[in-house]
Amino acid sequence: MPSSSPHSRPIVLAHLTDMHLFADSGGTLLGVDTEASFRGVLQHLLDSGDAPDLVLATGDLSQDGRPESYTRFLGMVAPLGAPVHVLPGNHDVRAPFQAVLAAHAAPVIDQGPWRIILLDSTLPDDEGGRLAPDQFDLLRTAGQVEDGRHVLVAMHHNPVPMHSAWLDPMRIGNADALFAVLDALPRVRALLWGHVHQAGDSLHVFDHPPGRAPLRMLSTPSTCFQFTPLSERFSIDPVAPGYRWITLHPDGRLDTRVVRVAALAPAPDHPSHDSTGY
């Protein structure tokens, strides 16, 4: 008879990031109506017929940091019918973020055979990222699982370079310390982030212990505009917004795919193509 244990089946996660919503409906950023774009992404997800076990949103939920933008976010994701978990990005404002989203911002989520740890990589009034001592303490403690679970760690900023000269200075400034902690946490299988407005999928190979599985490292497109990969200067990529599906298997394997919403791709003459920043 098949086991009915919650640890016996995969967990399906929908990753959404960098919505840049405004308090007022119809607000635009680089010529993009960020709310309309996010609604289009959510509708595409709903129309797929796939139901996530949980939804993870990794920062820059808001562009203006006002409470109304966070309330709007919650209303928009409610039709997904799955638990929603969030962490802040550099455009989010801590006080209203916590006031509206505290119930969705627990830093540790145990879901079946996996544990998800949410790290706060933001700095006040700074676009760059850095992990504070309390975040390392959280990771060390929560990453020491003793019940056979595997671990996925999520944050807003990228911990590794994206090989983009203008963007990489805003990555996590003390990433070497992060990987030193991860070196002692063999149950951590993957790192996941937003911030970079582009898809990435790579491996980090540990020097020890011998034979340890590589760490999967993933970034996900924004639900609005995208950054051109490998760019020297700020540049908008004329590709469609999207989201990422992640399937977390009981044996520690991870399957993932990025979904682009082609109908939301910017027009060739979209004003954002000539932008020099935001």
Automatic annotation (TrEMBL):
Pfam family, one: Metallophos
Protein's recorded name: Metallophosphoesterase
The UniProt record lists the keyword Iron: yes
Keyword terms, alphabetized: Hydrolase, Iron, Metal-binding
Alphabetized InterPro entries for the sequence: Calcineurin-like_PHP, CNP_phosphodiesterase-III, GpdQ/CpdA-like, Metallo-depent_PP-like
Domain called Calcineurin-like phosphoesterase: residue spans: 13-198
Organism field: Castellaniella hirudinis
Protein family: Belongs to the cyclic nucleotide phosphodiesterase class-III family.
